[in-house]
Amino acid sequence: MKNLNQQFQSAGLFTLAIRWVIGWTYFSAFWRRLILDNKLIPEEAGYIGEKFNHFLPNALGIKPLIEHLVLNPEQLQIAMVAFTIVEAIVGLFMILGLYTRLMSVGVFFLAMGILLGSGWIGTTCLDEWQIGVLGIASGFALFLTGSGYYSIDNFLLNKYPHLHQSNIFKWLGSGHLPKLISKKTILFGSIFIFSLTLFTNQYFHGGVFGTLHNKSVRPKLELSNLVKKSSEITFEVYRVEGADVYGSFLIGIQLLDDADRILEEWSGKDLAKFPLENISNHYVAKIKPGKHSLIIPLGAKADITLHTDKVESVKTIKLIDISGLEWQLTVN
User: Fold this and answer.
1) Strands 220-228 and 232-241: what pairing?
2) Are residues 20 and 156 in the same domain?
3) What is the pLDDT of residue 127?
4) N or C: less crowded end of the chain, CB within 10 Å?
5) Which residue numbers in the chain have pLDDT < 70?
6) Residue 22 phi, psi (nearest 5)
7) What's the distance, Cα to Cα, between the start and end of the chain in Å?
8) Angle in degrees, 0-180, between the axes of helices 127-145 and 183-205, rounded to the nearest 10
9) CATH no. for residue 271?
């Protein structure tokens, strides 16, 4: 028994750097959101709820949950505060080595949330996907090893020797695991995590076979739900791709006839002064006029209303991005 305890203490020591780094990864989220800068206030720039909204277009499996929250701002704020508190506790306790195995379960599920929600985001590398899969693997490894020397768990085991016999402390804190954790269990767990890694790499990025793609490189807008009235046209704009830290800057909207002739258009200057009452935003990430254009953040969805006396002649609506990208919606 003594040798077994020493083996687990050594294993916990070998993962010390992983425990500290993964702990700071999550605790720092709390630190930068609340201590360095308050990003939990919905009315202020940098609100974490808007960042959460960015995950929505291509999330895997949890899209309905994300959409429910961004459609209900009060619930979203509560969720963001709770999420930040959980990250703070998990991160701090992991750094200290307190209830290490319980915290490793927290790491596992926090990383799973990152992977499923934002694993598709990353402008130059597969940033969020890498953070997610490495967090899941680290959480699994830390659950197996617990924390050895240089941890509060180890201090408690030395001060209260009877904890070595406590299965509850072994499962929640550190120490040698029961024989239930066998080589096969570890193998199957590792196969599951590796399979999840390959699946999500392929699903989000085509990283296993086929054509590699990155949905964070350039903006993409989806246009739909066009409604024509006597003197106005309303349609829905939804930004589903592009960098999460950089908006789509719309510098032109054109109404075209069946010969692609411009019937009416709004330039960048016009869109910079576009009336707010003509924009009906659905989520917390909002489409709004900027200094030189109409800004469309990632994940934003809104109904846009254009007033024109040429409604009956309009056959196509064209949107023009500052990058030169164009999107069209044909009027049936």
Assistant:
1) antiparallel
2) yes
3) 84
4) C
5) 1-4, 180
6) -65, -35
7) 77
8) 170
9) 2.60.40
**One domain for residues 132 and 81:** yes
Residue 215 lies in a domain: no
What are the pLDDT digits (tens) for 4-38? 677 888 888 999 999 999 999 999 999 999 898 88
- Specify the pLDDT at position 130: 94
Q: Of 205, 240, 257, which residue sits at a domain end? A: 205
Token pair for residue 167? Answer: 């299965």
Same domain, residue pair 231 and 194: no
Q: Is pTM, for the whole model, over 0.70? A: yes
Q: Are residues 125 and 178 in the same domain?
A: yes
Across the strands, what pairs with 267? Answer: 252
Contact by Cβ (8 Å): 140, 196:
no
C-alpha distances out from residue 213 to 16, 122, 222, 298, Å: 36, 11, 18, 18
Residues 199 and 311 in one domain: no
What is the phi-psi region of residue 238: left when phi exceeds 0, alpha when psi lies from -120 to 50, beta otherwise?
A: beta
Cα–Cα distance between 106 and 98 in angstroms, integer? 13
C-beta of residue 315 within 8 angstroms of C-beta of residue 256: yes
The answer as to whether 210 is a domain residue is no
Amino acid at 249: F
SS3 letters for 259-294? CCCEEEEEEHHHHHCCCHHHEEECCCCCCEECCCCE
224 and 200 together in one domain: no
- Give me the chain's average pLDDT, please: 93
Residues 183 and 273 in one domain: no
Q: Are residues 157 and 272 in the same domain?
A: no
Domain that holds residue 28: 2-205
Nearest to 291 by CA among 260, 253, 321, 250: 250
Helix H segments across the chain? Answer: 2-14, 16-30, 48-54, 63-71, 73-96, 100-118, 127-145, 152-159, 167-172, 183-205, 268-272
Which residue has 């895997």 as its token pair?
60
